[in-house]
Every structure is written in structure tokens, then in C-alpha cells.
Amino acid sequence: EIIGDPMVETVVSHDIIGRLMLLAARNPGVNSVYDEVFGFQNDEFYLTEWPELVGRTLPEIALMLPEAVPIGFKRAERRGRPDFAWSKEEEADCEWGHTREGRFLKYGIELNPAPDSVMEPGDELLVLAADDDAYAPTDVPFEIPPQPLVTLPSRSHKKDRTLICGWRRDIDDMILSLDAEVRHGSELHILCQVPVEERWERLLAGNPNFKQELKNLTLVHHVGNSAVRR
């Protein structure tokens, strides 16, 4: 960051993987979604400039791309847009801006733009598609037949009981992320070979306010090796 900022984007893969582990544990099947979107098979992200789509909104464009899913724009003009709310810090970084609706623009990429936001000259369209030559806009919007409404099951309001096997250097962040998602009185069982006293030392070394920030979870410690059955 010191050398290349703002041209360098730092990605802490260890932390991202930890959050994905929690997300997948609480939402079975979400790992398949990430594998589908970010893997090298099936659909992928593509950026293409379509002059014939200039002046149209993303909902209108979606009805003209039967073989792709549009999700945003790469803006040719990154500054001075009327829906930006610049702060002094954001003003210093021309690659970053928040919109009033909470959407963001980074490196020119605007995901989930406002429904009335249109594609402008020089913009590129960001889509999910099978291949870069597998989709193209139609001359007229296609019709989508009415679909029955799907009723999603309500999320359980029961207290959670979660098991973590092993130890990670960022486990304090993982625990607090889980704590924010569960009901009060939920339990987190931790099974690893690290002694209990040393665990608390590591947790507090990583975050001195860890105990105060822990609101909903009760930690239950188990000492052992998850790879040994006896």
C-alpha cells in the first residue's frame, strides 16, 4: 500500500477465507454459489462496451440480454456524477466514492446501480455469462412470463450451537462476526490443543476489548485433537 496506493488493492485472503467459512457453515450451499461465480468453470464475469445500450437503465438492459445477467457498469467518467456523496477522504482518492443509496464505485466499477441510473457513452457493462461470445443484446426487450411467488421459510429463532475445530490467528474476528449473527445465549464450542488459558491470552492480545464486545455467544472450551478419535 505504501508503494503502490491507490494502484494496489490489498487482499487478506486468510481473513476472507475465515469469513467464508462462517458464512458457509450458517448457510449450507453458499459455498457452491461462490464456486460457481469465482471458479474457472461455468459462468464468469465479463466487461464489454455496448454502444447500442447507451441511455438504458440496468433493468431495461436485463430484458435485452437473455443469455447473461447484468450486474453493473464500469464507468468511463468516474467523477462528478450527481449521485455521489463525497467526503474529504474520498475526494483525495479519485478511484472511490459512495452514493447516497449506499452503492459504491471503486476503480470505476459500479455494482447494483440505482434503477434510474443509465449506461453512458464509454461505459462498459459488467455481466455474468457463459463466455464472452455467448451473449449479445437483442434488438427489442424479451418478455418474461409471470412466475409464481416463492415463499421462503422463516429463519429459525432458536439459539445456535456451533463447533470450531482447530485454532486460527484471526479466530477473534471470526468469533465476533458469528456473535453478531446469532441470538443471545448461543454457544460456540472450540476444540483444539491450545490450553484454555493460552486461548484467552491470544484472544485478548488480538483484541483487548474482546470480552466486552462479545454479546450473544458463550464460549465452551474443549482441549483435544480433532484428528484423533480416541
Describe the structure.
The chain is of the alpha+beta class and 230 residues long. It is 25% helix and 20% strand. The protein contains 7 helices and 9 strands; from the N terminus they run H-H-E-H-E-H-E-E-E-E-E-H-E-H-H-E. The chain has helices at residues 13-26, 30-38, 58-62, 88-92, 171-179, 196-206, 210-213; strands at residues 44-48, 68-74, 96-98, 104-106, 109-111, 124-129, 161-165, 186-192, 217-223. The protein has a 6-stranded antiparallel sheet. Strand 3 (96-98) and strand 4 (104-106) form a beta hairpin. Helix 1 (13-26) packs parallel to helix 5. The longest helix has 14 residues, at 13-26. It is elongated and about 65 Å long. The termini are far apart. The model is unreliable at 79-86, 90-96 and 98-102 (pLDDT under 50).
Q: Main β-sheet, in a few words?
A: 6 strands, antiparallel
Spatially, the strands of the biggest sheet line up as 1-6-2-5-4-3
Task: Give the overall form.
Answer: elongated
How many helices? The count is: 7
**Overall mean confidence score, pLDDT:** 82
Proportion of beta-strand residues: 15-25%
Poorly predicted sequence stretches spanning 5 or more consecutive residues: 79-86, 90-96, 98-102
Backbone CA Rg: 23 Å
Helix content: 10-25%
SSE pattern, N- to C-terminal:
HHEHEHEEEEEHEHHE
